[in-house]
Sequence to fold (391 residues):
Amino acid sequence: MAAKAKKKVGKKAPAKKAAPKISAKKSVKKAAARAPVKKAAAKKAPAKIAPAKKAKASGKLRLSLMCGNYEIVRPLKEGAVDVKGIDLVIGGYPGGRAIHDHVAAGQGCDINEYNGGHYVVQKAHGRADITAIPVFLHRRFRHGFIYINTSKGITKPSDLAGRRVACRSIGAAAAYWMRGHLDEHGASHKSITWVIQDPDDASEGAPPSTKIEVLPKGKLVEDMILTGEVDAIISPDVNAAQAQGDPRIARLWPDYKAVEVDYFKRTGFFPIMHVTTVPTEIVAKYPWVVESLTNAFEESKQLARRYVANPRNVPLAFLHTYREEEAKLLGPDPWEFGLSDLNKRNYDTLVGFVHDQVLDTPRPKLEDLFAKEAFELKLPLPVKYPFQYGF
Fold:
């Protein structure tokens, strides 16, 4: 299925001319050979919607974008941000899980949001057609996403050592962070049997020290935690049963926010989940795209943060109070882009988790993962849309 795209042009009324479709038969064998993915995932992936090329009309480089529909990218998608030297075509968003399968199969857009852990796995396995820029569109604290079956006598993290813990797949970015958190609190991921329903690159290439049990087709880990067939589950999403008050499931850390605040105070990390990738050949030919894209995403984020800070725009009674509390704890911009020392340590921690948990290759270095130009960006990034009061 070919994805559709709408062209955005500056701040004027956008032209609704569809991006040219590329045949779904276009081969992605080279990408697949570098980093094999499940056949099922590859079949669902759409053909790449807009190849990079010079746009004759504007003289700009024409690139397509696929990422989540987040507030911090809405201004960019809607054309409120001018991307210097680039004619940006907005591709469709296939959803939080499917987007990563598309990129893994080499069938996304030119610019893609991508699972930061899976990216490390593919680069370690030799994938060379994409490289990352320091735009981190998804972050999340993860202590609150580890759930236990309440009948198992689990009262502390170390009780999970030697147990059976479920997760949809080994390779979710969130899963790497949560296994790392369990390691820190006395439940080594190597002692745990990981019960998964969806095999992926990470599980299929994991060393024997990571114990993995693959479920029969049709078996769901979300059901198993409720029936007690597993002792716990780690999930990238909020568990619906727990949120709705099912007594059979509870968070490992009931006061998870306090645990996450303590983690931030100790490490400074608001954990990075996803990176943003661009074609390696485009960076080689047009190295200025790294700065142009990073600044454009930064401008979009600044506009979004200014908008959502206004209590008139968001239907939350204590929005401003919460925003002040968060800023006091996390600083003025917890969604910082660029390879600052903090972001380097943050993402390198994820790299370390990936290497320890599923790789038998040398640990990738940040220089192997990000475009050279990413390290040359002047920080802090320019502030074009400063925060405004008066609401």
Notes: Confidence is low (pLDDT under 50) at residues 1-51. Residues 6-139+272-376 form a domain with the D-Maltodextrin-Binding Protein; domain 2 fold (CATH 3.40.190.10).
